[in-house]
Design a protein that fits this description.
It contains 37 helices and 22 strands. The chain is of the alpha/beta class. The radius of gyration is 28 Å and the shape is elongated. The relative contact order is 0.08. The N terminus is likely disordered.
């Protein structure tokens, strides 16, 4: 088994100085450099097709599995209100299925936390019970310790043939490579693991190792391996090939190596699950059985193991239960040996780190990968190092060093989808940002990003630069876009990479704040509502301020129409989210303080912003930025009590009656709505936007498939990885086209910029509006 390759007709030449795919087989089992893996994945169009189909089918099946479980389960009443997820600020609709998921998730998370807190005692307890049952237990501090122990076992017993069932720990330690180097034959017997072994690849997914391959690709691989034709459409025939070819391996192997889904401390038992039956053969037929498991797999008792089982099946494979569940408490026969190797390899370091400690709850279901938009583009070989998905971005630096995780972590678009499906409530988005910040602290930022943030963090310099840019770009501006083809820029390779698929917006020579200050005084409300008479500070998000001043004026017009006094503090600039997302926390703190300084000077009932991302920063990032600074944390907490995004304010505070603006709306045609992913997954905005569009404005609303899936902007991700951003945007725009809507509405300016640019570049006639623009278009004339 070797390193990452893809079908030859899709492979690009690797960068100078790196090995070619043909040379990969002669290397050890460690992954190729990130840039190489990234280039191979982007060149494989079949990969994107395979993964997108998988993600969509998994999501439907997973939701159905939970719905079925809830309907046939305990029948609990559903309390009013939304449901908390892994992120304390992320919510799910209050359905019975989600309520059941929440209850089981919180219970297992609590159990896992107690184990993590007392991990040394649980390891001792497990070892004592297992050894009493005749098991040899070895504690491996490092990957090298584990590999040496297994290799020594093989040598002592004269074993030259090893069969394995699924174990990600062996991938973590690159055990296969060490065994093969010693002349020991290693055969993977899990169907997916066998496929990737034959293809000289690593698993691309923690549960479904070959999910990146189509059945046609598998058939071709099997035909080449066996020398016999294999039907490219008949999956049962392909599974039969594996059964036939692997049967001999089980009978001839001297050692079987397996993983563990859970380790039961009270009895020293090992729980493992599978759908193929191969794990039972691996653990019972060879005379030596070795279990490889991270120390985080410990649970206190069988009740906890069964709770684990109920969550992992639905989260991993969308099954109510897997086909085989096995508990082993000692060797199966007197003349056979059972060994359990408990691996640390950075786990104790994670346990000691309060920012990532919760990641040790992970039950390796890979649900975080199954909802991750970038994962659907590049797959697990790129979106991870050994462990793929969001969890891999967190634990890789602890298992393999900061360099190993530096490339993949930059792929995260911070959509927070992973937090909504994690069955043990790991706050993965915050942990990814923490790892990103440490990466920046150790390795620094790329020079263009560092210089850009330095400029943008200075309000006066940024203001001057944007005004000059607006003036200079005016000859290229048309209908809000920069027409770069007028100066031939579109012919440059750089332009094709960054701008061919999305037309850039034209910056305004004068910011929105200038227009707001020049407006006439407010007037009485035009419709009865619960917000009339309030005073609000309007935080004009920086993208809105410089690129979409008309949207800023729409927000002011709507607030005026509701009878609200609107003030815009002159010192406001940027909330600091670009720096926070980039991992530059020093700059983020400086910009957060600037924002708090500006907003604290004005007394008001609320602080409103039309940039949902800014609301997320102020509500959920600021306090965490100032750990160890109680005065600044108190300021952030006081600010948090007044901040609200525009959509929530209109829905929850103004509480407009159905049809309030319906009679005055112009013909906007069918409308569809894209939920900014953080509005859905962090702010818990729910159905507020669609309620406003359908009920308050009386417009025809068409449901957008995958409404809350990220559009691909992802802040700096769309600049650092434009190819990934373009593919995610393509997914979104295909869904938009399928609705037949003529107007696409969203609540975040970053999404608006990204969606407008993509639709314009594709020649679409669909217009993109902020929800404030839509409401303003429906206001009656004064």
């Amino acid at each position: 088994m070797a390193r990452i390759t893809t079908p030859a007709d899709h492979v690009k030449s690797p960068p100078k100085g790196e090995v070619s795919p043909a040379q990969v087989e002669r290397m050890d089992h460690t992954p190729q450099p990130f840039a190489h893996r990234y280039g191979l994945a982007l060149a494989d169009s079949q990969l994107q097709n395979n993964l997108l189909r998988f993600q969509r089918s998994w999501r439907d099946a997973r939701d159905e599995a939970w719905d079925g479980y809830a309907e046939g389960g305990e029948g609990r009443a559903v309390p009013a209100g939304a449901i908390r997820t892994a992120n304390p600020n992320v919510y799910l609709p209050p359905s019975p299925a989600n309520r059941e998921f929440e209850a089981l998730r919180d219970r297992l998370a609590e159990i896992k936390d107690e184990v993590i807190e007392n991990l040394p005692q649980y390891v001792d307890r497990f070892q004592e019970a297992a050894e009493a049952a005749g098991v040899h237990v070895y504690r491996a501090r490092t990957a090298e310790d584990l590999n040496s122990y297994v290799l020594d076992l093989c040598r002592r017993h004269g074993i030259s043939h090893v069969v394995k069932s699924k174990t990600m720990v062996s991938e973590e330690t690159t055990l296969n490579g060490d065994l093969e180097e010693a002349g020991i034959e290693v055969v993977e017997t899990d169907l997916g693991e066998w496929i990737v072994q034959l293809a000289h690849e690593r698993p691309s997914h923690m549960v479904m190792p070959a999910i990146h391959k189509s059945r046609q690709q598998v058939a071709s691989l099997f035909s080449e391996t066996t020398g016999k034709p294999v039907d490219s459409e008949n999956i049962q025939e392909q599974a039969g090939v594996a059964r036939r070819e692997l049967r001999r391996e089980f009978l001839e192997a001297g050692m079987g190596i397996s993983g563990a889904n859970a380790l039961v401390a009270e009895s020293g038992s090992v729980m493992f699950i599978c759908n193929e039956g191969n794990a039972r053969l691996v653990t019972s037929l060879p005379r030596v059985h070795v279990v490889l498991a991270g120390i985080e797999k410990l649970v206190p008792d069988f009740d906890a193991a069964m709770l684990h089982l109920r969550l992992v099946a639905r989260s991993a494979t969308a099954q109510t239960i897997t086909s085989y569940t096995t508990f082993l408490s000692g060797p199966p026969e007197e003349d056979k040996e059972m060994h359990i190797v408990l691996l640390d390899n950075g786990r104790s370091e994670m346990r000691a780190d309060p920012q990532v400690r919760d990641a040790l709850r992970c039950i390796r279901c890979a649900a975080c990968a199954n909802v991750c938009p970038p994962y659907a583009v590049v797959g697990g070989h790129v979106f991870g190092y050994i462990y793929s998905g969001a969890i891999g971005l967190v634990n890789t630096p602890y298992h393999h060093g900061i360099e190993a995780g530096a490339g993949p972590q930059s792929l995260c678009v911070s959509c927070n989808a992973c937090a909504t499906v994690c069955p043990v409530g790991i706050p993965l988005p915050q942990q990814i940002l923490a790892v990103r910040a440490r990466t920046v602290q150790e390795r620094g930022l790329p020079a263009p990003v560092r210089l850009g943030l330095r400029l943008w963090s200075n309000p006066h310099a940024a203001n001057a630069a944007m005004r000059v840019t607006g003036l200079l770009s005016r000859p290229l501006a048309q209908r809000g876009f920069l027409r770069l083809e007028r100066v031939g820029f579109n012919r440059l390779a750089l332009a094709r990479k960054f701008a061919a698929w999305r037309t850039p917006p034209a910056p305004s020579a004068s910011p929105a704040r200038d227009r707001i200050r020049a407006r006439t005084s407010r007037r009485p409300e035009v419709v009865s509502n619960h917000a009339a008479g309030l005073r609000v500070v309007y935080f004009v998000q920086c993208i809105t301020d410089r690129l979409f001043p008309d949207t800023a004026m729409s927000i002011v017009r709507v607030l005026d129409a509701l009878g609200i006094e609107v003030v815009t503090p002159p010192g406001q600039h940027c909330c600091g989210l670009p720096a926070i997302d980039a991992g530059d926390l020093d700059t983020g703190r400086r910009m957060a303080k600037q924002t708090m300084d500006a907003l604290e000077r004005t007394q008001a009932d609320y602080i409103i912003t039309g940039g949902a991302s800014c609301a997320v920063a102020m509500l959920h990032e600021y306090q965490g930025l100032f750990v160890g600074e109680p005065e600044q944390q108190a300021r952030a907490a006081a600010l948090k009590r007044r901040v609200m995004d525009f959509t929530t304010f209109v829905d929850k505070v103004a509480q407009l009656e159905p049809g309030a603006f319906a009679a005055s709306g112009r013909d906007l045609g069918p409308v569809t709505y894209h939920n900014f992913c953080q509005s859905a997954n962090i702010l818990g905005i729910g159905d507020a936007p669609t309620r406003i569009i359908r009920d308050v404005l009386g417009l025809e609303l068409r449901d957008l498939p995958e409404r809350s899936v990220c559009c691909g902007f992802g802040g700096s991700t769309s600049a650092v990885h434009p190819d990934v951003s373009a593919e995610i945007l393509k997914r979104k725009l295909e869904n938009v086209e399928g609705t037949g809507a003529t107007t696409l509405v969203t609540d975040n300016p970053g999404c608006m910029m990204h969606l407008r640019g993509g639709l314009d570049a594709g020649g679409s006639g669909v217009s993109v509006l902020h929800i404030a623009d839509l409401i303003a278009a429906c206001l009656p004339e004064r």
